[in-house]
Amino acid sequence: MTEAPRRTDDSWTDPLRLEVIVGSVRPGRFGPVVADWFTREAHRRPELAVGTLDLADDPPDFGSRIGAADAVAVVTPEYNHSYPGPLKTAIDSVGAEWRATPVGFVSYGGLSGGLRAVEPLRVVFAELHAVTVRDTVSFHGAHAAFTPDGEPKDPDGPAAAATALLNQLVWWGRTLRAGRERAAY
Hints:
Helix content: 25-40%
Largest sheet: 5 strands, parallel
CATH topology: Rossmann fold
Number of domains: 1
CATH architecture: 3-Layer(aba) Sandwich
Mean pLDDT: 94
Structural class: alpha/beta
Number of helices: 6
Order of helices and strands: EHEHEHEHEHH
């Protein structure tokens, strides 16, 4: 099955569409704090046009927005050594839209910082022909890592990690967009 190219404009100069998925839907969830911070970091990048898909809002346009995205960042907690069920349901609700799309991870949790949620997600996205980037942003002891106004208490480490992740998403986003414009995946 082939997919039509997503865009016809210049792959290297037009802003990349980054969708940030808030993967937790639990009442009292901490995900919006982490996602809001990461989204602010992404908005600082002029080469990115950033949108947010909060799964708690059950976005009706989820599939079309994933299909139009040049890159995706998944903000996920770790629940029981893995990722949330509603996140898996959302990922599985679309198929071809994920193909040749770079995916990055921002995780949070206790001692592991959510990294035990990220590793099985890499396998899921590989099956969907998405490309996961290596670097992640991870918050260990997330609730204690943020100030009451939603900023990391240690701004340097998370900001550096976000920069590395966004650099990779931009590179892969541009490269894969150029490839899709030349030939369907």
